[in-house]
Recover the amino acids of this structure.
């Protein structure tokens, strides 16, 4: 299986690979250089070795017509519709040989990088966060999204750290600085959908999606395909190995129809880690699938706990809070004693939700008051 995107082979050349099964031709257009046609390979891949250096900007040209960013671009300095940039972090001068902290020490502060002024703004807050007892920061999604301000859940280029927050090197500096303060750095990743603006996969890789399954964001991503699975697994490994993030929080995995993909991702991550390194894998999963918490994942954000507390503290019972309207104190007690409130009981729609969770340790559940 090829590595998605552009990867330096030596100081003057890189390997480019694009999965474009619907394309008739693909070329790489580096700025101020002649286009170089990639060669078709098995299973819809187009690949080639191209003379270039880190920092070179490029597009792909599909069928001599459509110009697109690399879907595995590492940096988009001009946004989702601009050129991609070849990035090589292998020579970043890491200052801390950090192995991480065990999961039971997790006290997590969620952080919106843009709200704090980008990577340098977050960096300025680290000493304070460590001093008040925070042991980890969780950055909201960084995958390149349209414009400069966003929650991060409309990203379309998940390998490219958002340009308006800073450069890839500045993100490395933030993580290295956090490690110097004894802080873990977790990243919220979105593998269940792409945002609508700047996503051109439908134009040359229709089979990245499956039209027979619809999600709130449109056609579901087809995790049955090895090229698709590899795309997201390589993304997880990039954040953890190249940027040295200490963990991932996987957003809304209930929208991923193939739980075996999640198990494979966890296995690949664990196998890639050097001995002794602590990395946290955490899920958001409305399905309350307890079995995943025994398959390489450390914990799940416990929506049941949040929702029961919200009903008790605010009295709001609309939407999904209706499930917690009756006997909210009992539901909270069950959450604190057994993990999930819904362990197969019917929800407000009469549909069974969840699996038994009482056998799992309390550390398998992340309790939060605001999300």
């Amino acid at each position: 299986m090829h590595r998605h995107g552009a990867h330096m082979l030596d100081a003057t050349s890189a390997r480019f690979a694009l999965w474009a099964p619907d394309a008739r031709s693909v070329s790489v257009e580096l700025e101020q250089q002649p286009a170089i046609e990639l060669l078709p390979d098995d299973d819809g891949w187009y690949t080639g070795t191209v003379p270039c250096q880190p920092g070179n900007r490029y597009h792909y040209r599909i069928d001599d017509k459509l110009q697109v960013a690399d879907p595995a671009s590492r940096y988009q300095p001009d946004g989702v519709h601009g050129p991609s940039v070849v990035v090589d972090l292998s020579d970043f001068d890491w200052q801390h040989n950090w192995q991480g902290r065990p999961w039971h020490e997790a006290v997590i502060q969620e952080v919106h990088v843009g709200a704090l002024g980008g990577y340098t703004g977050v960096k300025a807050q680290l000493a304070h966060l460590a001093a008040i007892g925070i042991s980890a920061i969780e950055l909201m999604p960084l995958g390149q999204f349209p414009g400069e301000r966003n929650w991060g859940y409309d990203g379309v280029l998940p390998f490219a750290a958002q340009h308006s927050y800073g450069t890839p090197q500045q993100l490395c500096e933030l993580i290295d600085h956090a490690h110097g303060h004894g802080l873990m750095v977790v990243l919220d990743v979105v593998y269940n959908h792409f945002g609508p603006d700047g996503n051109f996969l439908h134009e040359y890789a229709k089979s990245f999606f499956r039209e027979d399954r619809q999600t709130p964001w449109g056609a579901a991503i087809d995790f049955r395909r090895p090229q698709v699975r590899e795309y997201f697994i390589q993304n997880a490994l990039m954040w953890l190995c190249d940027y040295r993030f200490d963990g991932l929080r996987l957003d809304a995995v209930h929208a991923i129809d193939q739980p075996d993909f999640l198990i494979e991702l966890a296995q690949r991550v664990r196998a890639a880690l050097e001995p002794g390194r602590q990395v946290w894998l955490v899920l958001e999963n409305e399905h309350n699938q307890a079995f995943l918490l025994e398959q390489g994942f450390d914990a799940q954000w416990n929506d049941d706990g949040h929702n029961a507390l919200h009903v008790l503290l605010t009295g709001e019972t609309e939407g999904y809070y209706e499930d917690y309207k009756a006997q909210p104190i009992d539901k909270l007690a069950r959450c604190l004693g057994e993990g999930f409130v819904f362990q197969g009981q019917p929800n407000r729609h009469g549909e069974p939700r969840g699996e038994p969770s009482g056998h799992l340790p309390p550390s398998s559940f992340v309790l939060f008051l605001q999300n």
User: Anything to note?
Assistant: The longest strand covers residues 13-19. The helical segments are 118-123, 126-131, 168-180, 201-204, 226-242, 259-272, 303-314, 328-338.
